[in-house]
């Protein structure tokens, strides 16, 4: 039994500290190791992930807008007697796509303005 216990303990590797943590295009050095951090690296990291999340929401909004427009088109073909309701759905689909495009444009304009200060 003692041999088995020693064999098992020999197979367990000592945990090692990570050299760095990936933050998008940047690599943050391990907190447990002493090293110099790039100035404002945590702000850059948070900004990177926030941009990724906003891009995901942008793509999702565009996708839902296109699906809404396609759904309104199918309803228009299959149920022409409900044109007023279908026009409203088509209008909201187009409005959703326009708002999504404008929101990304406004965010990029503000980002460009503050990065060039």
Structure in words:
This protein is mainly alpha-helical. It has one domain (2-115). It has three helices and two strands, in the order αββαα. The protein has helices at residues 2-11, 41-78, 83-115, and strands spanning 20-23, 26-29. A two-stranded antiparallel sheet has the order 1-2. Strand 1 (20-23) and strand 2 (26-29) form a beta hairpin. The mean pLDDT is 78.
Distance between the termini: 70 Å
Strand content: 5-15%
| Total domain units | 1
**Count of strand segments:** 2
**Lateral strand order in the biggest sheet:** 1-2
Mean pLDDT: 78
Which regions have little confidence, pLDDT < 50, spanning 5+ residues?
A: none
What spatial form do the alpha-carbon principal axes imply?
elongated
Let me know the largest β-sheet. Answer: 2 strands, antiparallel
The class by helix and strand makeup works out as mainly alpha
Number of helices: 3
Helix proportion: 55-70%
Radius of gyration: 26 Å
The ordered string of helix (H) and strand (E) elements is HEEHH
């Amino acid at each position: 039994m003692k041999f088995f216990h020693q064999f098992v303990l020999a197979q367990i590797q000592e945990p090692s500290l990570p050299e760095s943590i990936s933050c998008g295009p940047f690599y943050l050095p391990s907190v447990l190791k002493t090293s110099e951090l790039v100035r404002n690296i945590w702000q850059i990291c948070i900004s990177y992930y926030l941009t990724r999340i906003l891009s995901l929401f942008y793509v999702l909004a565009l996708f839902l807008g296109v699906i809404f427009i396609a759904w309104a088109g199918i309803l228009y073909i299959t149920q022409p007697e409900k044109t007023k309701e279908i026009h409203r759905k088509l209008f909201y689909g187009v409005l959703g796509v326009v708002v999504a495009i404008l929101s990304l444009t406004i965010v990029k304009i503000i980002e460009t303005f503050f990065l060039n200060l």
